[in-house]
Design goal:
695 residues, alpha/beta, 2 domains, 8-stranded mixed beta sheet, 23 helices, elongated
């Protein structure tokens, strides 16, 4: 503004290690060069940028196109961080001191400079920094905004395709980046999504709710500091950046949280393998999550978790308020247990790593003829970390008066088995058959049985793996298909005459959608009426001809039950994606797997490794606990095998075995504790995954 001195603003970013440095310059800084980011911000401020990195890279980076383009808008300074990165297990302290180095040179002047922070793996939507600039000019001193993790291996190629080779700018509109973010969200988001409870992370410090396939809301402990103008001069760091910098630098400043992705969106690139070892099948309760958070959480993140964050690729859906209320309810229960967060200035994890970090830093500087302004000899090395038992006891003592726990099955969407359906009739159930309470596998099919209560069986589709036994849902639905009927593998089309999937026009793209036009459906129906396959019951359809497959979307299936072998369960995401387009909003997909060994589910690790559970729908998991059912199931199977044998004595023995199995089953079924909701027990007979189709 003419005649008026512009406010000072400094952008601070950092990276070390070749991969992160490349990511910073090729993607992060390219996104910062989008028209609505640095080019929109720089004219409004007296602006400079500090890039913190390894000194050995300085000369190469000065020749990089990103460096040259940024230099057109502001001064760029390179500063070394080599003294901070002497060991890999102290990343939190290294990051904290690196960020501090970005502005410690300002000294007393730092209280007059707006600092904007950008990590090396953060990708900004176009217009994000324009929003930050507007907030600063409105007088905001402390600005926070969320980042959302995506699978770098999937998202990076799509981002690089959009980078302009001449201007080096990467321009992605907010809703386009939101669509990419939701579609490629990382397992560290999927495993923290309260209405996707098939798997979770061991440590949960963020909470998400998938509203639909284009909208997600969140609560985060903590939310990233995007910009701050310190209220006081900082001389040194005393705690981890994310867990104390707000109270340390801006203790009284109002917290301005930019919650809507239309205004500000920051996507965080993260390797697919990150946190893989933390994945667990099932979900913990609010108290269990709080018990983990209690071990490291401070007051700042707990306070920030009150803010609801929204990322959306389209207009906000009408169901947003309902989803927000459900997320608020669960996070409120977690927060209720966090009654005594750790003092950020005396964090035991910081105290443990700090002495070694400073001693290694001092050694590095001494080798270069410099001194560290800290008396390292006075530091107590490795103050003891409290044991897990001590921390658990402290948590229980602090939360003794809190009783607001919420178990996973109490979270809505999809509807839980306990909240719908009814107990089986004593004499007959449409799914289980006669005398259901005497069947040892009743707990395994009960989640699906309850979901089918009151449903029109002509609106149920059953899909099964080839050769899977036992077939517990044969004959339940209007149509039966094999997995290969609904999956199309590139280069390996279904065999002619093997499935309904072969019916279709040759010019229709092979999308994997369950759809046929009316004429094709009529043809399939005629074939279906003419031929019955030798299954236990139910109907499977087949036709020879072209290699396009599908079934009519308009046929009106509300429920699809998939009985899957181990191999097909590992393809769950593919199967669900193929089936979902044939079901209406609110429809249900059940994936059922019989654990033949009836012990530990060895498949669990494979499912995680294959990323087979990355669904785009609300979901949760049931498991049939083994308890004392394994012997009853074996007696049941061997008894029926004997009945089918030759010889009266063998058949009589089979009758006795079945009777013993039924008596044992009756006791378990009356007790009613053989189904585990949202948990995987040490031994199980089956696993059922339920998904609710969203818009």
């Amino acid at each position: 503004m003419p005649g008026k001195e512009r406010r000072r603003l400094r952008l601070i970013t950092m990276a070390w290690g070749e991969g992160y440095i490349k990511e910073l310059f090729d993607i992060t800084l390219a996104a910062a060069l989008a028209p609505g980011n640095l080019p929109a911000l720089a004219p409004l401020f007296d602006c400079d940028m500090v890039i913190l990195t390894e000194e050995g890279w300085f000369e190469r980076l000065r020749q990089h196109p990103a460096f040259n383009r940024i230099s057109e808008y502001c001064l760029v300074h390179l500063r070394a961080v080599d003294e901070f990165i002497t060991r890999p297990d102290a990343y939190g302290i290294a990051l904290t001191y690196t960020l501090f180095r970005g502005f410690e040179d300002l000294g007393d002047e730092m209280v007059n400079v707006n600092l904007v922070f950008l990590n090396s793996d953060f990708v900004l939507a176009d217009g994000s920094l324009r929003t930050v600039a507007a907030k600063i000019l409105e007088g905001e001193r402390l600005i926070l905004a969320p980042s959302y993790c995506v699978v770098a291996e999937d998202a990076t190629p799509r981002l690089l395709e959009k980078r302009d080779p001449e201007t080096w700018s990467l321009v992605v509109p907010p809703r386009e980046l939101a669509a990419l973010t939701i579609a490629h969200r990382h397992n560290t988001i999927r495993g923290k999504t309260i209405n996707q409870r098939v798997f979770s992370l061991e440590w949960i410090d963020q909470f998400y709710f998938l509203v639909d396939r284009g909208t997600m809301i969140a609560r985060q402990f903590p939310i990233a500091v995007v910009s701050m103008r310190p209220e006081r001069v900082l001389k040194d760091m005393v705690t981890f950046w994310d867990y104390g910098i707000i109270s340390e630098a801006c203790p009284t400043a109002p917290r301005c949280v930019i919650a809507d992705s239309d205004e500000f969106l920051m996507t965080e690139l993260r390797s697919r393998e990150t946190a893989r070892a933390q994945i667990r099948l099932g979900w913990p309760s609010a108290k269990q999550i709080a018990g983990k958070l209690y071990r490291f959480i401070t007051a700042d993140p707990v306070e920030l978790s009150r803010h609801t964050l929204v990322v959306h690729a389209g207009d906000l859906p009408p169901t947003l308020a309902e989803a927000r209320a459900e997320l608020d309810r669960f996070v409120g229960a977690v927060r209720a247990f966090l009654v005594a967060p750790i003092d950020y200035r005396s964090h035991y994890i910081w105290a443990y790593h700090y002495p070694t970090f400073q001693k290694l830093r001092a050694e590095y500087l001494a080798n270069r003829g410099m001194r560290l302004p800290v008396n390292v000899d006075a530091l107590i090395e490795h103050p003891p970390i409290p044991s897990a038992e001590t921390l658990e006891a402290a948590f229980e003592a602090a939360a003794r008066d809190v009783s607001a726990d919420i178990k996973p099955e109490e979270i809505s969407s999809p509807a839980t088995v306990a909240a719908r359906g009814c107990a089986p009739s004593l004499f007959y159930d449409p799914v289980v058959g006669f005398a259901p309470m005497l069947k040892p596998y009743l707990p395994d099919v009960d989640p699906i049985r309850r979901a089918l209560t009151g449903k029109d069986r002509h609106r149920v589709l059953v899909v099964s793996s080839e050769g899977v036994t036992p077939r517990l849902f044969a004959g339940i639905g209007k149509i039966e298909l094999r997995v290969q009927d609904v999956l199309s593998t590139p280069g390996h089309p279904p065999k002619a005459g093997a499935s309904l999937s072969s019916i279709g026009r040759a010019d229709r793209p092979n999308t994997g959608a369950l759809s046929l036009d009316t004429k094709e459906w009529s043809m399939a129906s005629r074939i279906r009426s003419e031929r019955r396959w030798p299954l236990e019951s139910g109907q499977r359809v087949s036709a020879s001809g072209r290699n396009k497959w599908g079934i009519l979307r308009e046929s009106g299936f509300d429920v699809c039950i998939c009985e899957l072998s181990e191999a097909d369960l590992l393809r769950s995401s593919e199967i669900v994606n193929a089936i979902a387009s044939g079901l209406p909003t609110g429809g249900s997909i059940f994936l059922f797997h019989w654990n033949r060994e009836m012990g530990r589910l060895e498949l669990a690790e494979k499912l995680v490794e294959a990323n087979a559970l990355a669904f785009d729908f609300p979901s949760h998991i049931y498991s049939g606990r083994t308890l004392d059912r394994a012997d009853a199931i074996r007696l049941w199977d061997s008894g029926f095998a004997a009945l089918r044998g030759i010889g009266i004595f063998r058949q009589l023995g089979g009758v006795l075995q079945i009777a013993r199995a039924m008596w044992s089953a009756l006791g378990v079924n009356l007790r009613g504790d053989a189904v585990e909701f949202n948990q995987l027990p040490d031994a199980c007979t089956s696993v059922t995954i339920e998904l609710e189709v969203t818009p």
